[in-house]
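Sequence of Ferritin (Rubroshorea leprosula).
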Amino acid sequence: MLLKAAPAFSLLNPHGEHLCPLLFSSSSLVSQNSAAVRVSSPKIGPGIVVCASKGSNNRPLTGVVFEPFEEVKKELNLVPTTPQVSLARQKFTDDCEAAINEQINVEYNVSYVYHAMFGYFDRDNVALKGLAKFFKESSLEEREHAEKLMEYQNKRGGKVKLQSIVMPLSEFDHTDKGDALYAMELALSLEKLTNEKLLNLHSVASRCNDVHLTDFVESEFLSEQVEAINKISEYVAQLRRVGKGHGVWHFDQMLLHEGEEAVA
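Predicted 3D structure, token representation.
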């Protein structure tokens, strides 16, 4: 078997003994027969240590040991010394940082719209408490998504930069569709828009070869977003069936008591 020696590595026997040190260039080859280690083409060079144990006739060569102190020298020069620069940042591009801040803004804007819907359906002259509950929970969920992205931004060494939030609608009654169906269709559109923005964030991370960010988006957001789109799509289909009349009240009661059976 032939092993090509590599810079900043040393070979050890199974007992971890560093014996018979020799220095070789990266082109040197170490060959091992069944009972002995033979070194060919020796040439002195820095950073490579090949070791064999004393009397290692019956001891096989076990492999290569990493020498971190040699490898870390170049990294030490990259550690920032100014307090305004993150110490944790590594292989985190400006494009990824900007895309995360954009997604934070998307989540907060959607949360703001859902909160406006909660305020509308909670009015005394609307009094659809189930829809009010649903949109309040949806608003809190989108805010949690924004905070999760903010925590991730800080963890990677980026800077959170919050942007302006657009003022949402305050009235959601529609002449043909009514308020419940119109609001739910708007919610479906917002969820699809959020999913599209998440896919854009994922594509930026992929283009920048940021494996950790792509995994974060996939594991924390994409599956949940698909589930939310499917759930609200079913709500839209049900509201289209019941129309604007008494069926909306029954649908609202379903939302109001949803989850109570599981708790009981």
